[in-house]
Write a structure and sequence with these properties.
CATH superfamily of the largest domain: Glycosidases
Bound molecules: alpha-L-arabinofuranose
Oligomer: single chain
Shape: globular
Number of strands: 26
Distance between the termini: 27 Å
CATH class of the largest domain: Alpha Beta
Number of domains: 2
CATH architecture of the largest domain: Alpha-Beta Barrel
Structural class: alpha/beta
């Protein structure tokens, strides 16, 4: 099969916000305890943080990490995690039916984030609590001193404020599973008043209001309409979440699901525009896609949560999906969709970062290791920052239960900021046919291939593990560039990143 792609210097989509490649750490399962934090581990630093995990996070160059939840935040008291560790209470976490020791709180997470080279994106609890807790937490985190909460922070050992910019107004408040679930109108009012109080403290923070937790919610997309109607002029982003599964074992359908993601973004983008017109507002609201990933391999393990564990275990293994090669393609397709929609999606958080539906896994007392999906995330994060190109793609497509004419070739292009190279991320969705790609570079002077990485040739169910990697990336071969046309073959079911400098 052949595909023609055209990139033109004057046809661009948007500057990509680097925070598109963010991630997420929740107090859930082993994300924090025996994930990022394990005092006594051979690589642990003086604060108990695993250096092997920090090294991998730094390699991924994660720009921002959302914390502390997730569902967890909706019954969390942030004050439980400050002050001397020996005085911190153990609480029952209602979201995941576990015990929370509070050994890690805001001070520890902030130290970890600084060491991992990432920014914090914090969520406030609008489930069991509300405005008052949110304003206190903001003052504790961002006020220089001379007030009750900021002086308490100093007393607890941190002199300077952390100046966190991005704040989530709760989490998935539409979900019946959420502690303190609200109707859209109830949430819209609370979010508006909380935003008002937080902005009264600091106008320059960026606020994220909850959208639907999936497009399958019965309240979608009316939820977004109502919530934005209450909050439009007070917030900067609306949060969307989406997880992908292949329960039916149908690869063609699975690999077409990024089309549903695109439709989701398009729909909410239209709702944003509708409310903007209704309000006669000059201001724009963007999308913070602050939870996304493949999530279904751990379904059996997760049933324990729904059925209730025996007791209230501390940091049990939960949501520990082991990703396969098919998921590499899916994560690549999702990231390509975000690049193409970078005009409206400004923040993205791969959910999550360590142990819980994560690219990085750890063995308690043992090594940290890279899942298959680590690699497409690594390449996009490292080379997908800059300006998104508006590519024209001509390729045969296929129909699925929910989408028509899904192109076998998926491609996103970026004029990469750090070195001026053109970076193309390509996925061949076809199960048996290779695609000969001819990519015409119009108006560009870049003329040689400077990097070519391929992930392909594996069984769809191939996985990595603590003892070694089956799936990784290798140097591609055979790509050429002549007279302004890049030519490369995409083997069946493959992911490739080619950079032209
Ligand atoms: O990321 C796992 C969970 O998925 C989060 O806690 C929640 O927000 C979502 O439903």
């Amino acid at each position: 099969m052949r595909a023609r792609v055209t990139a033109h210097k004057d046809y661009i989509i948007s500057d990509i916000d680097p925070r598109l490649y963010g991630s997420f750490i929740e107090h859930l399962g082993r994300a924090v305890y025996s994930g990022i934090y394990e005092p006594g581990h051979a690589t642990a630093d003086d604060n108990g943080f695993r250096q092997d995990v920090i090294d991998l996070v730094r390699e991924l160059d994660v720009p921002v990490v959302r914390y502390p939840g997730g569902n967890f935040v909706s019954a969390y008291n942030w004050e439980d995690g400050i002050g001397p560790k020996e005085n911190r209470p153990t609480r029952l976490d209602l979201a995941w039916h576990t015990s929370e020791s509070n050994e890690v709180g805001i001070h520890e997470f902030a130290d970890w984030a600084a060491k991992a080279g990432t920014e914090m994106m914090l969520a406030v609890n609008l489930g069991s609590r509300g405005l008052d807790e949110a304003r206190a937490f903001l003052e504790y985190v961002n006020h220089p001193g001379g007030s009750y909460w900021s002086d308490l922070r100093k007393q607890n050992g941190r002199d300077e404020p952390w100046n966190v910019k991005l704040w989530c107004l709760g989490n998935e408040m539409d979900g019946p599973w959420q502690i303190g679930q609200k109707t859209a109108a109830e949430y819209g009012r609370v979010a508006f008043e909380t935003a008002k109080a937080m902005r009264a403290f600091d106008k320059s923070i960026e606020l994220v209001v909850c959208g639907s937790s999936t497009p399958n919610m019965v309240t979608y997309p009316e939820w977004e309409y109502t919530v934005l109607d209450y909050t439009y002029d007070s917030v900067d982003y609306i949060s969307l979440h989406m997880y992908f599964d292949n329960h039916e074992g149908n690869t063609r359908n699975f690999l077409a699901k990024a089309v549903q993601l695109d439709t989701y973004i398009e729909t909410i983008s239209s709702v944003i525009k509708t409310i903007k017109a209704k309000k006669r507002s000059k201001k724009d609201v963007y999308i913070s896609f602050d939870e996304w990933n493949v999530w279904y391999h751990s379904a059996e393990q997760d049933k324990a949560i729904l059925q209730g564990h025996e007791g209230w275990p501390h940091a049990p293994g939960l949501l520990e999906d082991i990703y396969d090669f098919a998921d590499v393609l899916q994560v690549g397709l999702i990231l390509n969709t975000f690049i193409r929609r970078s005009d409206v999606v400004k923040v993205g958080c791969l959910a999550q970062l360590v142990n819980v539906i994560a690219p990085i896994m750890t063995v308690k007392g043992g090594p940290a290791w890279r899942q298959t999906t680590y690699y497409p995330y690594l390449l996009a994060s490292q080379y997908g920052r800059g300006t998104a190109l508006n590519l024209a793609v001509e390729c045969e497509g296929y129909d699925t239960d929910f989408a028509s004419n899904v192109s076998y070739l998926d491609v996103a292009g970026v004029l990469t900021e750090k070195d001026g190279a053109l970076t193309f991320f390509l996925v061949n969705r076809h199960e048996s046919e290779a695609i000969e790609v001819a990519l015409s570079l119009e108006g560009f002077s870049q003329s040689s291939i400077v990097m070519d990485k391929v992930i392909g040739g594996y069984a769809l169910d191939a996985v990595n593990g603590p003892d070694g990697e089956t799936v990784g990336m290798v140097d591609g071969s055979g790509a050429t560039i002549a007279e302004g046309t890049l030519r490369a073959d995409m083997p069946p079911l493959s992911y490739r990143m080619i950079r032209v400098g």
